[in-house]
TrEMBL record:
It is an enzyme of class 2 (transferase). Keywords: ATP-binding, Cytoplasm, Kinase, Nucleotide-binding, Transferase. This is Cytidylate kinase. It comes from Sulfitobacter alexandrii. ATP binds at G10, P11, A12, A13, S14, G15, K16, G17, T18. It catalyses: dCMP + ATP = dCDP + ADP; CMP + ATP = CDP + ADP. The keyword Phosphoprotein does not apply. Its EC number is 2.7.4.25. GO terms for molecular function: ATP binding; CMP kinase activity; dCMP kinase activity. GO terms for cellular component: cytoplasm. The gene is cmk. It is found in: Cytoplasm. The lineage of its organism: Bacteria, Pseudomonadati, Pseudomonadota, Alphaproteobacteria, Rhodobacterales.
Amino acid sequence: LNGFTVAIDGPAASGKGTISKAVARHFGFAHLDTGLLYRAVGARVLDGELPEDAARALVPADLEDDRLRSPEVAQEASRVAAVPEVRALLVDFQRSFAARAGGAVLDGRDIGTVICPDAQVKMFVTARADVRARRRFEELRGKGVDTTFEAVLADVEARDARDMGRADAPLRPAPDAVQVDTSNLAIDAAVEAAVALIAEKL
Ligand code: C5P
């Protein structure tokens, strides 16, 4: 299974993170949430560093920062993610992760298109923006964050527009990705579909 790679892309709160974690656990694969890399760069930029310097200075401990899940860091992440130098500095780490022994699941925006175009399994997970915003809103509220559904929806839509509109590695499905819409699909069903898809290729 060395180098066996599952690429799961999609917009914010589409369910790709949950699906990725579940299939990694199911098959015993390592999992990398690549959004955390951009969030960690974003957090450093909010602390005053320049995007490129921040990407170069990144260390594994940065990924443990509790602030990474905040809406402010999410927005900054999508801004630094549009900087080509930042993206270029993060490529090797992601490709090495994908090549590790025992199989790997990477989730993000450009895994199937740019980082691992030869991935054995590619999925593109989507859902309507209002459904995704509702999920993220409930999640933030559960964590005690004081926000409104409208604010979360505006955040999600701003990030979608930035991620799809950038010139370098825009968010889009790879031509050979299997698309899954989770708007009306329970997470268990989406996980089952992903497990079946991977089992076919093993
Ligand atoms: O997935 P997550 O919401 O944590 O990603 C945060 C931001 O990082 C995204 O809005 C996107 O701009 C950026 N990102 C990216 N490429 C990836 C993963 C995340 O551009 N592979």
